[in-house]
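Posted in: Protein Modeling Q&A

I'm a second-year student putting together a small comparison for a lab meeting, and my supervisor asked me to include a predicted structure for RNA polymerase RpoE-like sigma-24 subunit. I've never done this before, so apologies if this is the wrong subforum. The sequence is pasted below exactly as I got it from our records. If anyone can share the structure token output, I'd also love a short note on what stands out.
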Amino acid sequence: MKESRRDRLDDLYRHYARPLYYYLYKMSGSKETAEDLTQETFVRATVSLTFYQQEDVRAWLFKVARNAYLDEWRKRQRRKKIPFADYIFPMAEMTSPYGLPEDSAIKRETRKNVEDLLSCLPEQYRSILYLREFESFSYSEIEEALDLTENQVKVTLHRARKKLAQLADEQWREKND
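Accepted answer (user: helix_wrangler)
Welcome! Here is the predicted structure, written out as tokens:
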């Protein structure tokens, strides 16, 4: 590997390994799987790095990560294992030693409710919501990462938000009936 290519890959890893890991962790629900898939993403990126420009590499890396995740998910489906853990978000929550215990309990319950709702969404909805809301991807970056057109991104994002709101409403009604 040429020195400039190695430097470029090192730079990419320093900049994008953590966001990719968090994305893959949220998708898989497993720290170990996220670590493995993050490494797999950079292995795949090493092979194809030469034809990507710096300005679109972020979206491209998330696309590679998503494809690695989907490949892993399909393998697990064939083995009849469920690829998602009960939680999409990490359970451990940092709380201030000065905060009220009630606030911490409410936050955990709210987070659990959101995790449950998100786990009910199809993968594409979870991906698009995560990329837009947590990673602040632009529409064009989402287009690149998910292989969609701009209109498909807008429609899918709208449908994902609508479905999430519908699920939240149904959950609220069940609790209050």
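A couple of things worth pointing out for your meeting: Residues 150-176 form the longest helix (27 residues). Residues 1-175 form a domain with the Butyryl-CoA Dehydrogenase, subunit A; domain 3 fold (CATH 1.20.140.160).
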